[in-house]
From TrEMBL:
Entry annotated with the keyword Mitochondrion: no
Gene for this chain: trpF
Sequence similarity: Belongs to the TrpF family.
Record-given protein name: N-(5'-phosphoribosyl)anthranilate isomerase
GO molecular function: phosphoribosylanthranilate isomerase activity
N-(5'phosphoribosyl) anthranilate isomerase (PRAI) domain span: 4-193
Length: 198
């Protein structure tokens, strides 16, 4: 099971993940309390362990900005959380060869069905716009043709249940590994240990 720790914005966050070794981390470029600038992401990326894949999180961002971040190797994947449609995804694919994740707000199974043939490489199934810390009904997931990240309110006490119910390619945690709005080293280490060794 792959693990993504999203919303890194402090230097110490990089130290935490370098020790824990999740598969992916996320830098949020969209407006958020965890938002980072291109310069700050570049500085943090330079200290990130090479075995961890950095992902950029965007909401209706300009194609050029995303392509530049990908092609300059500041991030290795783009995660789209806005109203980006298939035309936008196709255009982004002409600008970069790197993978694209498209977020889906899951209210009913049809929300996932509508995205089964998306040109995105991965889906990310979430409760809402992202960063809400709320779960959704995992029984809605059913069969998904594409590999997908499961997000939304995941933490140590519900992650195993979520995985059994939804069978994702990867789990995506942010507020579930924070204390008082900051990444918590002990929580990150615990969740990765639990996922890897149990």
């Amino acid at each position: 099971m792959k693990i993504k720790i999203c919303g890194l914005f402090q230097n110490c966050d990089i130290d935490f993940v370098n020790e824990a070794k999740p598969d992916f981390i996320g830098f949020v470029f969209a407006k958020s309390r965890r938002q980072v600038s291109m310069e700050w992401a570049k500085a943090m990326r330079s200290n990130l362990s090479p075995e961890i894949t950095p992902v950029g999180v965007f909401v209706n961002e300009s194609l050029t900005k995303i392509a530049n971040l990908l092609n300059d190797n500041i991030i290795e994947m783009a995660q789209l959380h806005g109203n980006e449609g298939e035309t936008y995804i196709r255009e982004l694919k002409t600008l970069t060869a790197k993978p694209i994740i498209k977020a889906v707000q899951v209210k009913v199974h049809a929300d996932i069905e509508a995205m089964q043939d998306s040109e995105a490489d991965f889906l990310l199934l979430d409760q809402g716009a992202g960063g809400t810390g709320q779960t959704f009904d995992w029984s809605l997931v059913g069969e998904v043709k594409k590999p997908f990240f499961l997000a939304g309110g995941l933490k140590a006490d519900n992650i195993e249940q979520a995985i059994r119910a939804a069978k994702p390619f990867a789990v995506d945690l942010s507020s579930g590994v924070e204390t008082d709005g900051k990444k918590d080293k002990a929580k990150i280490l615990e969740i990765v240990r639990r996922m890897r060794y149990e």
